[in-house]
Design a protein that fits this description.
Number of strands: 3
CATH class of one domain: Alpha Beta
Strand content: 5-15%
Largest sheet: 3 strands, parallel
Number of helices: 8
Shape: elongated
Radius of gyration: 33 Å
Length: 234
């Protein structure tokens, strides 16, 4: 009787979390779940302007296989949330780039790929049409330097972007919205006269050289003065 009373009236011990319970129940927050879903399914837009896009296109093949990161290339900006600006951006292409960016749904991210995209690259010194940095047009989340960057570097940029997406909070998303399109200083280009203006073609010495060249041209020689041609051997 004592044993029965002790077994039935004994105090209940503290509950223990068993291994089966911990392996079948996931405890997380809404922010973590939402960010995990977004960082695991970044859909880049198929957009490229120059040679850097060749490196980006190499990721689609089986050698690098960027589908394992959840990157699904999309041809429509309304279905993409990642814009990898690969190549030189000219002033003629700038309105189209801004239109594509504005058509992408929020939240969206931008990776500036290559030296020409970040600072204008080799065209930053003497080009009158290259944009000196795509951050003058749209906000950039991550800069990827190189000329051009290798596909492995793009993977590294995507991994860093995934870490940034994983640390975001829904309540603080308003602080990350774009407030001003131009992130850097504007162009300060001074119009100067062109160095090559054709004066050397109108020079007297150049005219004499052209006249002498036309005089000895085979087209201006008489039939008797035409040089003899050696027939080819059969």
């Amino acid at each position: 009787m004592r044993d029965l009373r002790a077994a039935s009236c004994g105090p209940v011990g503290s509950p223990e979390v068993t291994t089966d319970l911990s392996e079948n129940v996931i405890l997380t927050s809404l922010d973590d779940l939402h960010n995990w879903a977004r960082l695991s399914s970044l859909w880049p837009l198929l957009y490229g302007t120059a040679c850097c896009f060749i490196e980006f296109a190499a990721l689609i093949g089986s050698r690098f296989d960027f589908d394992r990161f959840g990157l699904v290339p999309r041809s429509s900006p309304r279905q993409a949330d990642l814009l990898i600006v690969a190549g030189t951006v000219t002033m003629k292409m700038a309105p189209a780039l801004v239109r594509l960016y504005e058509q992408m749904p929020e939240p969206k991210y931008v990776i500036a790929m290559g030296a020409c995209t970040i600072t204008g690259g080799m065209f930053s010194a003497d080009s009158t049409t290259a944009v000196r940095g795509v951050d003058k047009l749209i906000p950039v989340d991550l800069y990827l330097p190189g000329c051009p960057p290798r596909p492995e570097a793009i993977f590294d940029a995507v991994i860093k972007l995934r870490k940034k997406v994983g640390d975001e909070a829904i309540a603080e998303r308003g602080k990350l919205e774009q407030t001003h399109r131009y992130s850097t200083v504007e162009h300060r280009m001074t119009a100067v006269d062109p160095i090559v203006d054709g004066r050397y073609l109108r020079a007297e010495t150049q005219q004499k050289a052209l006249a002498a060249a036309e005089a000895v041209s085979p087209l201006n020689l008489a039939p008797a003065e035409q040089p003899e041609t050696i027939p080819a051997k059969s």
